[in-house]
Write a structure and sequence with these properties.
mainly beta, four-stranded antiparallel sheet, 11 strands
Length: 121
Amino acid sequence: QVQLVESGGGLVQPGGSLSLSCVASGIFSAYVWAWYRQAPGKQRELFASIFSGISISTTYKDSVKGRFTISRDNAKNTVYLQMDKLKPEDTAVYSCAAKETAAGGFRMDYWGKGTLVTVSS
């Protein structure tokens, strides 16, 4: 069975940076990787994704554009998230997710358990 495991969360000062990674175990080939987050008192949101195919395509929510970067290493079955210029409102549990085909729209097949990112002085 495919399992996703995130790592890299922690406490960081406003304006600082963190790098998250998510490694998939098992036989797996992702069509799309996505990062979600859920902040205290807020709904879970999709904020970054990366698609495979003829060309690589990435998408970002406006709130993280220019600050966060999603990337992947297919050989390592790993997706990364580089977060720069972090703000207190970025504080959330960050989860990775993936799906293997385009079928079913944006419904993810696999989820990680999440890692907590706290941005505070």
